[in-house]
Amino acid sequence: MGTSTAANLTEQRYYPLDPQVMADPYEEYQRVREMGPLCWVAPAALGVTRFDDIGKLIKDGRIVSSFPKDDPRFTLDSGPAAELSQRILLTRETKNHQRLRGLIAPAFTPKRVAHVQDRIAQKVASIYARAAEQGEFDAVADLGLPLTVAVVSELLGIPDDARDEIGQRAALLSRAFTPFAMPEDNREQARDALVWLRKLVHALLLERLDDPAEDLLTEMAKALKTSDEFSVEELVDNAVFVVFTGYETTSSLIGTGFSLLLEHADARRTLWQNPDLVKSAIQEMLRYDAPSQFAAGIAQERVEFYQHVIRPGRVVFFMLGSGNRDPRKFAHPDRFDITRNPNPHLSFGTGAHRCVGAALGLMESEIVFRKLVETFKDMQPVGGRIRQPNPSIRSYKQVPVSIIKR
């Protein structure tokens, strides 16, 4: 069969901004995945639907994550989000990617992360102690968000008095990083939140030039002093991105993990009976309902893909959430199975762009769920769980939990 342009995919469309799809995208993922390996995700953007194809194309050097300046298809608007998207580690390639990753990654190595392990455990224990007194808590507002904001803020060097405001602006900042155009009122609020965080980080970076500390912002300040490879704007925007990714993915994972355990009583009983399954359970939480549903790139050259041609300049979305439910890769993919092994999900990305903070996120999550099982006899849902309406980030606004003491 000869090749054809992707324009022929008339029926294969995925609608990320449909409210029902944002609430639960997996039925739609199944539909487009079974129709073919490609679908339309936006007017000028294609989605790759299947696990093996995502793994192959996301590493294809002809599709890069560095978008042309002011390209409106990947940014919230032409303001600060567009500027930031040009500078961050996620959207840089080859030498620029390696240069920035070499500066940022050492702050998130397992050895460096281990230094904050005891403080994470103490904070989680304190949160659970208050929950035990009250009989209930919110897995997002009382646990996931304040914990992860505090941890990434400590690693970067953001003072305590700014952390509460970061948490308050968390949902708005999430909209600033979505690759899909949002309504105008959401754009304005997200823009304001991003401007605020950039100003905060910029001021702290300049302070570190004269007053160093043991944190990532100090390392960035040193790089600014000793090398002409970095600009202030580039370091500020990458620090902002680290702040966002440092709390967003893990906080989303914690909220989703609690929700899944509340929904699946059999999995919850299994976990309480076998606490050693905590690591496996976290991997299944990541696969079953990934915090980040998409990665994105843009074709630099013509790419022949099955019977289709992806033209140069075409935006390509790697549909990680769809790949994680692909029956070609996972047996019973719609079953939440905390004993699943192996579990080669796509939720932390793959290749050169694998999430730099994966070790930190996994450690935080393991402490949260291990101490949950150790501290309480069981838990039950209380009140309604509310999702954040976001097409690319799966997270909750609230997950109320009633706990049962030992």
What's the number of extended β-strand segments? Answer: 13
CATH architecture classification name of the largest domain = Orthogonal Bundle
Helical amount among residues, as a percent range? Answer: 40-55%
- Rg from Cα: 21 Å
The name CATH uses for the topology of the largest domain is: Cytochrome p450
Q: Please identify the top-level CATH class of the largest domain.
A: Mainly Alpha
Order of helices and strands: EHHEEHEHHHHEHHHHHHHHEEEEHHEEEE
What does this structure look like?
The protein has 406 residues and is of the alpha+beta class. The protein folds into two domains: 1-66 and 293-346, Uridine Diphospho-n-acetylenolpyruvylglucosamine Reductase, domain 2 (2-Layer Sandwich), CATH 3.30.43.20; 74-287 and 354-405, Orthogonal Bundle (Cytochrome p450). The protein contains 17 helices and 13 strands. The chain has helices at residues 19-23, 26-35, 51-57, 80-87, 94-104, 110-114, 117-134, 139-156, 160-168, 170-176, 184-210, 216-226, 232-263, 265-273, 278-288, 320-323, 358-375, and strands at residues 4-5, 38-42, 45-48, 63-64, 136-138, 294-299, 303-305, 308-310, 315-319, 376-381, 386-387, 396-398, 400-405. The chain has a five-stranded mixed sheet with strand order 2-3-9-6-4. Strands 1-8-7 form a three-stranded mixed sheet, with no helix packed on it. The radius of gyration is 21 Å and the shape is globular. 47% of the residues are buried. The model has no long low-confidence stretch (mean pLDDT 88).
